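yo

u said u wanted the structure for the complex thing, so here. seqs first:
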Amino acid sequence: MICNSSEELHALVLEAKTYTKIGKVADYIPALGKANQNDLAVAIHYPNGDCLSAGDIEKKFTLQSVSKVISLALVLIEKGSEYVFNRVGMEPTGDPFNSIVKLETMALAKPLNPMINAGALAVTHMIEGTSVESRFDRLLSFIHEMTTDSTINYCEEVARSEFETAHLNRALCYFLKQNLIINEDIEQLMDLYTKQCSIEMNSLNLARIGVVFAMDGIDPTSGKQIIPKEIARICKTFMVTCGMYNASGEFAIKIGIPAKSGVSGGIMGAVPGKFGIGIFGPSLNNQGNSIAGIKLLELLSKNYSLSMF
Ligand code: DON
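structre next:
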């Protein structure tokens, strides 16, 4: 077990918190701009149900790009890996999360991976169902199962704010539609995608999802295989190679934990075979990752030798 107590974790949060001043809260989705730059929270969820937490753990935040790993796991379960990877690639880009450039310059117009926005939009398009509501319900039920919290829902204000301003994501969708990667109405897909990104929870909930990935897709309490082992493995590999976008290489070297970030400041970590981590720190660095959250993961990884490499 790392950290003998929440006090020990609290000391690491205080050390990392100084970094919140250096970063900046995302405001390209206007509603996210309301976050408190100084907030920082961490939760660690062990397979035996023990939980350690420190900081502003009562604060809820929207998943944003953290949701991309969860939607990927769902479509891999529903459609199988051949179907999914015929439409989205497996390679890191080295570009920012919302970049459009590789779609046009690559010989095949399919998005390079499911963690960049273009790839995530293609993945969300694959969620089965006859309406946005039924497709969103599938995703939400999957999250309820992993968190064991059926009260989790999406934040309407953030969803609406992104829906009204997501012009670049619409451009990515039109490009994908032109190239036959997607074939649905773009406004409908944007409705589903912005709801997915606005699913709201706290760090403890996020750590609970992290532990399911860490334990090869098994719910540690019930013993149920929620995600097939092979799919959990694929998701964790994407977290290592693409989870932090164009900072993934440095993150793998310095920290070495499969992790996925979002512009709300959330980071989900899955330390294989050990525990799940949920972090919230809305002050971001230039790559759109939680600046204090990354510092905190660096401290945890160094102090407790968590790197998998
Ligand atoms: O599509 C977007 O731009 C947001 N809903 C999610 C982007 C995001 O979280 C990137 N992560 N660092």
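Residues 64-65, 97-98, 117, 162, 169, 197, 261-263, 288-289 surround 6-diazenyl-5-OXO-L-norleucine (CB under 6 Å). The CA atoms of residues 164 and 287 lie 23 Å apart.
cya
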